Amino acid sequence: MAINGISMGTKSLTLFLALVTFTCLLSSTTVEARDIIVGDDSGWTLNGFNYTAWAQGQKFAVGDNLVFKYDSALHDVYMVGGIAFKNCSTEKKLASFNTGNDIVPLSMAGNMWFLCSVSGHCENGMKFKITVVAAETSDTPTESPTATPPTTGGAPSLSSAASTFILLIFAGLAISLL
Predict the structure, then answer these.
(1) What is the value of pTM for the model shown?
(2) Fewest CB within a 10 Å sphere: which of 102, 123, 138, 165?
(3) At 160, which helix (H) or strand (E)?
(4) How confident is the model over 58-107, as pLDDT tens digits?
């Protein structure tokens, strides 16, 4: 049976193809955020753990969270810029944490530097640098500016191109069903 010159089979096929495309698009752009415990089982401590080597062995992507676990009576966490990091300085801190179980959302691509401000800790290796990459290209590090302090976490969203593509599919579907 045809309505407005379009058969019901064509409408069903169009709807089916739109749904398959939408499902494929969502499955290919969904990125699962990870909670990455700084120092793995050692946590954030001064017990000879090599945080530089640890960080170099990790991949950090937008949407991930750094989790700092430590004794808050002995340590803290400061996020600083590159120069402050080299000098183990907290004068121009970007953020500080001191609960002993701090979660830092990686909300944008770029370099981030962390250190402990307790006297002698940074100088003895309690510091590290990471490079956070965009979620869609988490296998390829990017040359991007320094990340700013995190303000909120959240699930990654679809890119504007993907959103536009979905909108066009459903607009085309709506037009074809008229």
Answers:
(1) 0.61
(2) 123
(3) helix 160-177
(4) 999 999 999 999 999 999 999 999 999 999 999 999 999 999 999 999 99
List the structure tokens of 168: 């066009």
Tell me the C-alpha distance between 98 and 77, whole Å: 6
Total number of residues shown for the chain:
178
d(CA 110, CA 158): 20
Written as six digits, the tokens of 176 are 């074809």
Helix (DSSP H) and strand (DSSP E) numbers for the chain? 4, 10
- 76 neighbors 116 (Cβ within 8 angstroms): yes
Q: What are phi and psi of 138, to 5 degrees?
A: -65, -15
Alpha-carbon distance 110 to 85, whole Å? 15
Structure tokens at 39: 């120092």
Q: SS3 of 65, please?
A: strand
